[in-house]
Design brief:
Length: 359
């Protein structure tokens, strides 16, 4: 299933590319000398292999690519790529990435995070990076469980999940990461799966081409604590009936079922034979208002995986936070403001905005 990349390439146009005539980089150039330490069968292996194969296609210098992670199994990612990288603190990777993207416009900045890292302690950092539209690419590995800390339920675990921290079944209503991103006004939102190498690579390309904050949810299997969570989407026959491939301008359909818009504004999946042609949903990734994309994202909210949209939900153009910050600084310098000096600091400290604190 191919993906319409939508808007023209601009996401990394400012990043120094390999010079003309330079030897093209290959997968080995992006593979570090570190031993990969994930559990046998972990979906992270497939994602890493896809990324190592994808990075040479960007045509960028390795020193202009940065991977920043938080805490979790997925957060070992920067060790296994021969680029610059940082293993940061729990949930704060988007914050580090925001500072780096703002200070260094010559970098292609990627965030690697998991469902626990990004949607629990890191929830606020994630949504603010998305709403600000910082030019970073966030890959959210969603295995619906805490893996590194040994099997507690996570913010995306389905209701009733039996785990070490919920032996009688989780009572929490889970987050749908795509819905969270759309609610935060992210300008690029997509979903793909660890075992679908072709689709995963196409989504990575689309995210890399986008200028602004990109959130890619990746369904990822944890063979130890939540094995088989997405097996119904990996079985060929089941997938044909369940996966709704999102193609810009095309009907949203799976097998002999199509998506239709209901009277209440929601999207429902019905047999094509019973669908009113005027109600059938045609996907549009660049619709300014996120309501249609959000309605699509809610199809997985019941946790059954009966119908799962896959692909790019939304891709719109909006000024990026880091570009605007650099613009403000440049304008201030051009206006004669210039950078702060020692005299400015002394004036601030000796100013009239003071408080007297008595014991």
């Amino acid at each position: 299933m191919s993906i319409d990349l939508g808007m023209p390439s601009s996401g990394v146009a400012f990043v120094p590319h390999l010079p003309d005539g330079a030897t093209p980089l290959g997968r080995k150039d992006f593979t570090s000398d570190q031993d990969v330490r994930w559990c046998p069968g972990c979906g992270d292996y497939a994602i890493l292999a896809a990324m190592q194969g994808f990075l040479p296609e960007l045509g960028l210098r390795r020193e202009n690519i940065v991977f920043i992670s938080g805490i979790g199994c997925s957060s070992r990612f920067p060790y296994y790529l021969d680029t610059y990288g940082m293993h940061s603190i729990h949930g704060r990777a988007p914050t580090f990435a925001t500072g780096l993207a703002t200070a260094r416009e010559d970098l292609s900045v990627w965030v690697i995070t998991g469902d626990g890292d990004s949607l629990s302690i890191g929830g606020n950092h994630l949504i603010h990076a998305l709403r600000r539209n910082v030019n970073i690419k966030i890959l959210l590995f969603n295995n619906e469980i805490y893996g590194l800390t040994k099997g507690q339920y996570s913010p995306t675990s389905r209701a009733g999940t039996v785990s070490k921290s919920s032996p009688l079944g989780s009572l929490d209503t889970p987050f749908t990461p795509v819905s969270v991103a759309l609610g935060a006004e992210a300008t690029f939102v997509a979903r793909t799966m660890d075992s679908d190498r072709k689709h995963l690579t196409e989504v990575l390309h689309a995210a890399a081409r986008h200028r602004g904050a990109a959130l890619v949810e990746i369904y990822q299997n944890c063979p130890i604590f939540n094995d088989g969570a997405f097996d119904v989407l990996k079985d060929k026959d089941q997938a044909a009936a369940r996966i709704l491939w999102l193609q810009d301008g095309e009907e949203v359909a799976a097998g002999d079922h199509v998506a239709v818009r209901a009277d209440d504004g929601s999207i429902q999946i019905v047999p094509r034979a019973t669908a009113s042609p005027t109600r059938i949903v045609r996907h549009s990734i660049d619709t300014e208002h996120p309501s249609s994309a959000f309605a699509l994202s809610r199809l997985t909210s019941d946790g059954t995986l009966a119908h799962v949209p896959m692909g790019v939900f939304r891709q719109i153009s909006r000024p990026t936070y880091d570009d605007m910050v650099r613009g403000q600084v440049s304008a201030a310098v051009d206006a004669g403001g210039g950078p702060a000096t020692d005299a400015d600091l002394a004036g601030l400290l000796a100013g009239r905005d003071t408080w007297t604190v008595s014991g």
